[in-house]
Design brief:
By secondary structure, the protein is mainly alpha-helical. It contains 24 helices and 5 strands. The chain binds zinc ion.
């Protein structure tokens, strides 16, 4: 059992499809519940072998993109996965028609059927061409951004390489960098706005064809949201506005004072400390050793988990040539193994990988005996609870990584989470406006962003940059183009993670027990059911946000950040 020895063999689609359809036929024509259950589990095993091979190929390809063999395998899956998805859809149809539903539901619970039902509500072959168009438009946007070239002081940068320049210690450089970046967006703005306009119209068309009033409900169904709707989300945003926006504004004021700037501009927002952001005080191997110590002392379960990851070579953390960018956590079901991929670069982000991504990995590891691929992961807003809460459960060990800067790290972590929430809900409110007014036109769309930005980010000073002043900032947010209505999920999970932050401080033992129960439940329940399983208060209920902000505010007020 070591990732290097995980056997890879390309699953030939035709062979897979043949076996799959035979089993599906047997399932549909089963004569009794026992037979249906047996065929159901065989279909599950067959799916798992296919996805196991996909995940092995994907991980190996991203670890070394110059490896010709896995490059070819990745390309094979890129064209094969839609057909695989189509087979899964047929399986869901059969599942909803089986006369033995009661027996299956008794064993697996109702969430599987909720997933099947919603998955069928978001697709019909009538919209196939429009869906292809939607995908193409999203990729056009991604390509446009990937091709970005910002020329600055004689050097050329892409958008991610430009990030460090944007937070330079010299304020004049920050200002010039902001102008250079937003000039790129201004130059491409017409194209981006047209792509988005087409996307909105296409999504509206798809919704109308499928019998929806507009794209909003379809967008929610795509996210498999079964226990809340747009109205509840609107109420939730209002709670953020009332109880979090003032705290965020106060944090920006404190930042101004720390930096000695009386007029904090947008290009100062990501520059938190004149002394620099806290960084881990050692090399990657040193970080991993400390992470091992940390997880072994946090709990028996995390100790077992982290040693499993280490012993079986299930993490590739350090940046090296040929590696794909970014970070992720995935699950190789055939080996019951999570996998963590990242690119350590010497910033506090390296520690975030070991707390955030390891939170995802710990959840999927804790629920590995759940036996149903639909339940490996929960829906996104629930999935981020595990990762964001693990960031807080590991707080007592952050001194290992940040040493004398530990208080600065904690202040920066918690205040960063608070500052994110108003932006997160602004992105969500904007999308509701967009899909409720699909024909409003480009100019009104920008104006809507401008209004929403003023409401949720009242501290913001766009520094007279024309593109931002016209309300263009939303055009930098990938999710708005590629994953409609996804963004709010991060904020919902954060409000839950804040509750774990408080519970852990008050009573570690019971907080950890709640967290463990949540992780073991995997994706076997809907968001609000999982919230209940974890003994948390729903972010949609009156009082939840107000209550959780009290201890957070008093913690932040107790920190003397002038010394940072
Ligand atoms: Zn995450």
């Amino acid at each position: 059992m070591n990732f290097n020895n995980f056997e890879y063999k390309r699953p030939v689609l035709e062979t897979f499809e043949k076996s799959f359809m035979t089993l599906l036929g047997d399932f549909s024509s089963a004569g009794n519940a026992a037979e249906a259950t047996e065929k159901f589990s065989q279909i599950g095993k067959l799916r798992s072998t296919f996805m196991t091979m996909y995940n092995i190929a994907h991980v190996r390809h991203t670890i070394n993109t110059t490896d010709k063999f896995y490059e070819k395998e990745q390309a094979y899956f890129d064209v094969t996965l839609p057909s695989y998805q189509d087979l899964v859809t047929q399986f869901y149809k059969a599942l909803l028609q089986t006369p033995y539903r009661a027996a299956l539901e008794e064993k697996w619970g109702s969430q599987l059927f909720v997933i099947a039902e919603l998955s069928l509500k978001v697709f019909t072959s009538k919209v196939l061409e429009d869906l292809k168009k939607e995908n193409k438009l999203s990729s056009d946007y991604v390509k446009l951004k990937a091709a970005a070239e910002i020329e600055f002081k004689g050097k050329k940068y892409n958008l991610s390489a430009f990030l460090p320049v944007e937070t330079d210690d010299d304020r004049t450089i920050r200002k010039e960098a902001a102008h250079a970046k937003w000039d790129f967006y201004a130059k491409e703005s017409e194209k981006m706005e047209l792509i988005f306009d087409e996307l909105v119209k296409t999504r509206h068309e798809i919704a109308k064809t499928m019998g929806y009033k507009n794209f909003v409900e379809l967008g929610y169904n795509r996210m498999i949201r079964s226990d809340y709707n747009a109205e509840k989300v609107a109420y939730y945003r209002a709670q953020i506005l009332e109880h979090i926006v003032p705290v965020a504004t106060d944090l920006y004021n404190r930042q101004s004072n720390r930096l000695g700037i009386s007029d904090l501009k947008i290009y100062d927002e990501n520059y938190s400390f004149a002394s620099g952001n806290p960084k881990p005080k050692g090399d990657p191997q040193w970080i991993i050793n400390h992470a091992k110590t940390m997880y072994e002392s946090l709990s028996a379960e995390t100790g077992t988990f982290f040693n499993f990851m280490l012993d079986n070579n299930l993490m590739d953390l350090v940046n090296k040539e040929g590696k794909a960018t970014g970070g992720y956590c995935t699950y190789i079901s055939g080996y019951k193994s999570p996998y963590i991929f990242s690119n350590f670069n010497g910033t506090s982000g390296d520690i975030d990988v070991l707390t955030h991504e390891a939170g995802h990995a710990f959840q999927v590891f804790s629920s590995k005996e759940i036996g149903l691929s639909e339940y490996n992961w929960p829906t996104y807003e629930a999935a981020e609870i595990h990762s964001m809460s693990m960031e807080f459960f590991t707080w007592p060990w952050m001194n290992l990584f940040f040493e004398e800067d530990v208080e600065k790290y904690k202040f920066s972590h918690l205040s960063g989470a608070i500052k994110f929430l108003p932006y997160g809900v602004a992105v969500d409110e904007f999308q509701h406006f967009v899909y409720e007014n699909p024909d409003c036109g480009i100019e009104k769309r920008n104006l809507a962003w401008k209004e929403i930005e003023k409401k949720y980010l009242p501290h913001r000073d766009n520094a007279g940059i024309p593109f931002l002043e016209k309300g263009g900032l939303w055009q930098r947010q990938n999710h708005i183009f590629s994953s409609p209505f996804y963004y709010i999920d991060y904020t919902l999970a954060q409000v839950c993670a804040f509750q774990f932050w408080k519970k852990d401080k008050d009573d570690h033992k019971s907080a950890w027990a709640d967290y463990l129960r949540l992780c073991k439940a995997g994706g076997s329940a809907s968001f609000l059911s999982l919230v209940k399983i974890a003994n948390l208060d729903s972010p949609f209920e009156p009082g939840t946000i107000e209550e959780v902000m009290k201890p957070i505010k008093s913690y932040l007020d107790g920190v003397d950040d002038s010394k940072f």
